[in-house]
Amino acid sequence: MSNPIDTLLANNRAWAEQMCEQDPDYFARLSRQQNPDYLWIGCSDSRVPANQIIDLPPGEVFVHRNVANLLHHTDMNALSVVQFAVDMLKVKHIMVVGHYGCGGVKAAVTGGECGIVDYWLHSVRELYNHHRESLDHLARDERIDRMCELNVKAQVNSLCRTKILQRAWQRGDPIAVHGWVYGLKDGLVKDLNCTVTGLSQVETLYRIDRLQPSS
After folding, report:
1. Is 131 one of the catalytic residues?
2. What is the pLDDT of residue 112?
3. Which of 64, 102, 160, 194 is labelled catalytic?
4. What is the arithmetic mean of pLDDT over 177-181?
5. Which Pfam families match (predicted)?
6. CA-CA distance, 190 to 97, in Å (whole number)?
7. Is 47 tagged catalytic?
8. What is the phi/psi pair of residue 150, to 5°?
9. Active site includes 102?
10. pTM
11. Which of 29, 47, 73, 210 is catalytic?
12. What is the pLDDT of residue 146?
């Protein structure tokens, strides 16, 4: 019986050889510097590979993924990725990307015991509770898919409320934050038309320029 890890390593060697045959300078060029214009904040689901979905090669998309594509203001991992992408890489577009049928969203909507991930999904559960009256007439799968959309929009808002994004906009950096949902059944991305391109689109309560300095 073959060892599955040995198989993966063999696959890697075959892939590297194939890439070098097609383009001898491929890895040398890739190792020099990454200069992506895009940051992808997506779900950890193995069926949602960022580069493949938008057909861009390695080095073109900076990626952060977690269960249900969440942006918590206490998550130093996600915030570090965002700050590096915004301040160091100078990305021009940030895509928050959910997907229909998301297991994390489903767990938050349908309940049940999921272990420690329940704590992670608490904000999704609260979001569902907020919209419950407008969703409960839908069939379960429709309700989950609608929540996937609402969750993406909520994460776009959460991201735009960070000082990282707001200070970048104050500097005049051209950054747009987009909300997308990916369809597992057809491979298509749906733009939720919730793009934010500047500080003026952020709710006043969450803006870092809302308070005037005391005289």
Report:
1. no
2. 77
3. 102
4. 98
5. Pro_CA
6. 9
7. yes
8. -65, -35
9. yes
10. 0.93
11. 47
12. 98
Establish whether 99 is a catalytic residue: yes
All residues at 6 or more sequence positions from 64 whose CB lies less than 8 Å from its CB, including other chains = 39, 40, 41, 42, 77, 78, 81, 82
Catalytic, 148? Answer: no
In angstroms, rounded to a whole number, what is the distance separating the alpha carbons of residues 108 and 40? 23
SS3 assignment for the chain: CCCHHHHHHHHHHHHHHHHHHHCCCHHHHHHHCCCCCEEEEEECCCCCCHHHHCCCCCCCEEEEEECCCCCCCCCHHHHHHHHHHHHHCCCCEEEEEEECCCHHHHHHHHCCCCCCHHHHCHHHHHHHHHHHHHHCCCCHHHHHHHHHHHHHHHHHHHHHCCHHHHHHHHHCCCCEEEEEEECCCCCCEEECCCCECCHHHCCHHHCCCCCCCCC
Query: Residues 52-83: pLDDT tens digits?
Result: 999 998 889 999 999 999 999 999 999 999 99
Per-residue model confidence (pLDDT) at position 32: 83
pLDDT value, residue 90: 97
212 band by pLDDT with thresholds 50, 70 and 90: low
Six token digits for residue 102 = 């998301």
Tens of pLDDT, residue by residue over 92-141, are 999 999 999 999 999 999 987 889 999 999 999 999 999 999 999 999 99
Strands 189-191 and 38-43: unpaired
